[in-house]
Amino acid sequence: MSAGVTSVVSAGECMIELVELGDGLMRRGFGGDTLNTAIYLRRCLDPQRCTVSYMTVLGDDPYSDEMVGTWKGEGLDCSLVGRSPGSLPGIHAVRTDASGERMFHYWRDRAPVRDLYRDDAYAELLAASTSADLFYFSGITLAILDDPSRHRLLDDLRRRRENGGRIAFDPNLRLRIWQDAGIARHWFKAVYPLCDFLLPTFDDEIALWRDSSPQDVIERIGEQTEGEIVVKCGSDATHARACGQGVSVKPETVRDPVDTTGAGDSFNAAYLAARLEGASLQEAVHAGQNLAAHVIRHPGAIAPPLG
Fold first, then answer.
1. Are 228 and 241 in contact (CB under 8 A)?
2. Where in 195-282 does DSSP place strands (E)?
3. I need a labelling partner for 84 at 20 to 30 A (CA). Which of 105, 228, 238, 278 fits?
């Protein structure tokens, strides 16, 4: 894996987040899987050598303005953030039950990011990003688009690869935002051959494909792509394969984790940053595990910077 990466783009949806605190009170914040990964990529890569951009579409409301200000404060380039006059970003509410299980409720059907690949609405924005060395997106990015937009996303991935860019994809399965599991399987299979890095989570693969082991995941996806495959397994060993070579790396034990939100997103960022900077497969997996271990020791998806 060669170094010299100067630009990374992460594309997807960021939503207004409302977390119930009890007594009718809620804490407002912002959340999104691809945003989390973008922020951690920014922290992992040298800002003097590499620009990390977040690509999405927001409204022209005060909450959208605040989002952009927050992202800029994290060092992200926001020149690829489209703005849709009269629109509002999506919202999700988080409620925690008596057992500690979190439940999510979404209002996102009219979020402007759904138009990112619709017709030529944001053609200039997409064209401005095609020279990126790495393009990162997730299954949520894919799920929120309509079918014509998904086809345009696939065309966009092909153009990026033709330009020498690399593609990273985390399936990050959220079945409730797909019409059904069969449609999710169809589009994931269409994406796999276009990716250089695939970063699935084993629990998601069990739910969608009924895989019985991380090795089954690697074998199944490996039939459709020559890209690197990294299967995240929570507190169990991470399994990865690249160029025919595989590793299995057990993470450190984190006692009494505070919040697992953002663990996979942060792993992806540290892993990708390490590989882009020339680290071995095992070194990159260690980097991902170490950052994820730090993140789950803190509340929320965005932990304080390491060190």
1. yes
2. 197-198, 228-231, 238-242, 245-249
3. 105
pLDDT tens figures, 70-94:
999 999 999 999 999 999 999 999 8
H or E, element range at 68: helix 62-73
pTM (2 decimals)?
0.96
Lowest mean pLDDT among 1-5, 96-100, 153-157, 171-175: 1-5
Q: What is the pairing mode between strands 197-198 and 228-231?
A: parallel
Q: How far apart are CA 112 and CA 142, in angstroms?
A: 14
11 to 8, 45, 55, 137: CA distances (angstroms): 10, 18, 5, 5
List Cβ neighbours of 198 (8 Å cut-off, separation of 6 or more): 168, 169, 170, 171, 192, 221, 225, 227, 228, 229, 230
What class has domain 7-14+32-89+109-295?
Answer: alpha beta
Q: What gap in Å lies between CA 205 and CA 215, rounded to an integer?
A: 11
Stretch 164-182: mean pLDDT: 96
Q: What is the CA radius of gyration of the chain?
A: 18
